[in-house]
Amino acid sequence: MRKHIKKLLIGAGCLVISGNFYLILKDQSKIERAAFVDQYSAAKKEDIKEMLHKEGVVSPSDNYHYYYDEKMGSFKQFFVKKGEEVTIGTPLYEYISADIEADRVRMEAEITKIENQISAIEDHISELTRYRDTLMFEEEEKAEGRAIIHSVEQDIYDKELQAEMLGKTAEKYEQELEALQASEGKLTVVSEYEGIVSDVNIGLENPLITINSLTPTIRGSFNEEERIQAEAGMTAVLSSNLIKNPWKGTLQEADNLPAGRVSEKKKSSYPFTIQLDEEAPQELLQGSHVNIRLITKEVNGAIMVPKESVVRSKKKSFVWVITASGRLEQREMKAGMQSGNQVQAKKGIDAGEMIVSQSDSVQKEEGPSIITPLHPSKLELSAMKAIGKKQTARYLAKGILSR
């Protein structure tokens, strides 16, 4: 009789246990199943940048050409050769004037014309400066405002440079006029710029002499997709395998017109120029190649979560959040920029909230209860002794059966 009762009890126990396992494991079960969360981390604030990686070539910022016309008179001699460095006022070539009086009148007229042009440019610079000083922007407009201010300052810089170049041209004419009056028709053309002579045409074909500016600039080209992302005024971080430290520049110009002929068989390329914000390293040779990291977007204090934590569903994104009470919550968030293995949470997540690192570690129908792994190295012996054997056994059983 006792054996019969014992068998019935064992069978009933097995039936109850099997029934519980069935109810727990079957799909759409109403019995709560705890999620086993192995990895989780806090959402952190970080400064992030979105960069466009390109290559460029060091080139002179300007090329200056000098011409010769036989109507000016008879060519006499060159004073410079290719590769020679020149400064303002360096003699370039000499010719004998065909008509001294006509040259004198022409030079005086050119000097007067240039002085009028300089005066007009200075008035324009004053107007641009007043306009820049009146610009004010709200907090949300600061990014666009910086681009506008940079554009105005670039216009001021260009106008100042133009006025400076015209002043040097006027000085050149004045020097030639003095030389004309003192040399009985022998005229010497002098350099208006500092630079390196890159070409001397001994066949007297124009341009007769070409001078490259000593100021380097970085040139390259964007493809169609990259050109849409790039805007003048963006910061560029430049580096070279031959130079130890990186240096900074600014995207000065990005052409809207493609280089060369347009063809449906190949993608168009759009030239760009980067102006250096600091003095170029001495090792930076013209013609050398550099790496460019163009900062197209920048966010300070962005809230970042692991990329693998994000669940994407149609047009929405979610993450699993472990609340302060230790419960699991599926939270909608607005995803933003990506930086490495991290994604920006533009909305929905606060810094410091605990995020499940691997979204697929939470299975369907699991939660909101969670179980985390035991880390023996983090346990304190005194705390374990204080719990007691019965309580310890109860926690162990719960941990085993909950899964």
Automatic annotation (TrEMBL):
Pfam families linked to this entry: BSH_YknX, RND-MFP_C
Keyword Coiled coil: yes
Domain YknX-like barrel-sandwich hybrid per the UniProt entry, residue ranges: 65-202
One GO cellular component term noted in the UniProt record for this chain: efflux pump complex
InterPro entries in the cross-refs: BSH_YknX-like, MdtA-like_C
Residue span, Multidrug resistance protein MdtA-like C-terminal permuted SH3 domain: 302-356
Molecular-function GO terms, alphabetical: efflux transmembrane transporter activity
Keywords: Coiled coil
Top-rank taxon: Bacteria
Coiled-coil intervals, chain numbering: 97-183
PANTHER family referenced in this protein's UniProt entry, alphabetically: MULTIDRUG RESISTANCE PROTEIN MDTA (PTHR30469), SLR1207 PROTEIN (PTHR30469:SF33)
Name of the molecule in the record: Efflux RND transporter periplasmic adaptor subunit
Organism of origin: Cytobacillus praedii
